[in-house]
Specification:
Layout (H helix, E strand, L loop, with lengths): L3 H22 L5 E8 L2 E9 L11 E3 L5 H7 L2 E3 L19 E8 L5 E9 L7 H14 L3 H4 L2
Antiparallel strand pairs: 1-2, 1-6, 2-3, 4-5, 5-6
Length: 151
């Protein structure tokens, strides 16, 4: 069974990269990522890719106004199994490009919004409530590591 204790051990043993790898192994999504807010952009600072390929350029930085992360800010979380059929995303340029997206906010220890942590894919995938709660737990654990991720 996957638990917050497993997350804590992964973070302790291998740092934030190991935490993302642990999260990614338990879901069908290709990517698990951390993005930080940087003005009008979201910048990718960590990425775990199931296919272990070089990070595509389009994932390096995303305009905030086009990102699904804007909904994480507004609603404190965002989940969609298939963006092509999600009315909340009508008109968004990434609708139908990023198909499956499940994300939670990342905050600093003092509660300031820093970025997001997400599972996503270009294919449709559900995410169980247990795995979503694990993602939320990982975001809380990563809170104390954000300064080193500022890159």
């Amino acid at each position: 069974m996957r638990t917050t204790e497993n997350l804590r051990a992964a973070l302790s043993d291998g740092g934030p990269d190991a935490l993302l790898e642990y999260l990614n192994k338990g879901v069908p999504h290709r990517y698990t990522a951390v993005y930080r807010f940087d003005g009008e952009l979201l910048r990718n600072v960590l990425l775990c890719d199931k296919l272990d390929q070089v990070r595509p350029d389009f994932l390096l930085a995303v305009p905030f106004k086009h990102s699904f992360c804007q909904f994480v800010l507004r609603d404190q979380a965002f989940r969609t199994e298939d963006s092509r059929h999600d009315k909340r995303l009508d008109g968004n340029p990434y609708q139908g490009v990023v198909i499956s997206y499940h994300s939670v906010p990342l905050t600093t220890p003092d509660g300031a919004l820093w970025g997001t942590m997400s599972h996503f894919d270009m294919k449709s995938h559900p995410l169980t409530d247990d795995e979503f709660q694990l993602l939320e737990g990982a975001a809380k654990l990563l809170s104390g590591q954000l300064k080193q991720l500022g890159r």
